[in-house]
Amino acid sequence: GFTSNGVYRVWLQVVGRRTGEATNLVSAPTPIEFQVEPVPVAPKGAFARWQEGNWPGISDHGVIGAASDPDRDGRANLEEYATGTDPKVADSAPAVAPSIAINLGGEMDARGLRIASLVVATASDVTPLLATAQAATGPWRRLEPVPAAVEESLESVPVRRRWTWTLAHPENAGAAFYRVEYVLGTEP
Fold first, then answer.
1. Alpha-carbon span 163 to 6, nearest angstrom
2. Which terminus in the chain has less CB density within 10 A, N or C?
């Protein structure tokens, strides 16, 4: 390998012996030139910048990975990033959190739920997805499509993005569980 970019000239010479002969054959020294260019660096996404800001110089994905929970508060780094919490402090209060509104139905209204998920604006590369299951242990099924985000402001958080799902809940549908899952870009 080369330690830095630049133009390198390496002189190579081949030494060998033919089968059945006792004398080595030696080639003339031959220069080979290499032009080494710097490795292109991909621009860092918002999550990568957040990782560097929280753990400068650390590359261990067991600590900084999206699914890791180094403070052991039950929220993975991606959720802490999306909701504006501190990934190094257990049980830090979320700056934003999902909310649920229940409509019990009346004469004119259908029974249902309105679930909203908020993401801090600095987490521009995160999308929340809503998943449902018949039991808390799963299996979980994502509800599609993801509604478009709406930007709004709070006193404590200057800008946040909100996704809202409105779900009809028919009579005798039984229990259902819902959870918000966060994805980075388009990958879970």
1. 50
2. N
Which of 154, 146, 92 minimizes the C-alpha distance to 121? 154
Q: How many CB atoms lie within 10 A of CB 90?
A: 13
Instruction: Retrieve residue 181's tokens.
Output: 């899952």
89 phi/psi in degrees, rounded to 5:
-125, 120
Mean pLDDT along residues 72-90: 91
**Structure confidence at residue 170 (pLDDT):** 58
Contact at 8 Å (CB) between 121 and 159?
A: yes
Q: How confident is the model at residue 153 (pLDDT cuts 50, 70, 90)?
A: low
10 Å CB burial of residue 160 (0-12, 13-18, 19+) is buried
What are the beta bridge partners of residue 35? 7
The model's pTM = 0.65
Residue 57 backbone class (left: φ over 0; alpha: ψ -120 to 50; beta: rest): left
Residues linked to residue 150 through DSSP beta bridges, in sequence order: 162
Q: Go through the chain and tell me how many residues it has.
A: 188
Average predicted confidence (pLDDT) for the chain? 81
Give the Cα separation of 14 and 10 in Å (integer).
13
Bridge partners (DSSP) listed for residue 168? 112
Q: How far apart are CA 102 and CA 59, in angstroms?
A: 43
Q: For residue 162, which of 89, 105, 97 has the smallest C-alpha distance?
A: 97
Q: Which residue has the tokens 């990975």?
A: 65
